[in-house]
What we know:
single chain; mainly alpha; 9 helices; TetR family transcriptional regulator; HTH_TetR; TetR_C_31; Homeodomain-like_sf
Amino acid sequence: xxxxxxxxxxxxxxxxxxxxxxxxxxxxxxxxxxxxxxxxxxxxxxxxxxxxxxxxxxxxxxxxxxxxxxxxxxxxxxxxxxxxxxxxxxxxxxxxxxxxxxxxxxxxxxxxxxxxxxxxxxxxxxxxxxxxxxxxxxxxxxxxxxxxxxxxxxxxxxxxxxxxxxxxxxxxxxxxxxxxxx
Length: 182
């Protein structure tokens, strides 16, 4: 039987891996579970992704791309007249109010880098992308501090179940920005 050309198969496997991690966590992801979710033969997953870490890297990279699209859609972070703290707090509110499973998935993949060294460079891309964007509005050290605050607030919301408080986030972020001006 001739092989069927399926140019979207690799992407379907990545999408399936993201759905599996979203439903069962990283511990639930295997080549077999991704293949079943993508409705492809098991050999397809191992053909496109030799190791599970390769599949996780692709999933994390795709999650990072989703994050970048949210940032780009707001646009205000690059406007020098816009209140940087308010823009960041608004972005966080939009991100956390959206598909909660997607946000949780991004952080689960991001934190998986603690135990999976192959994920570390991709996890670092997330922080670097945001820091680079913020460095257009402030100095690099303040940009990194803002990234740390964003991470901290988002993780607190995700882990505690406490609703996101945009005014609190704006105040805390504003203090970091104001401290840079002193």
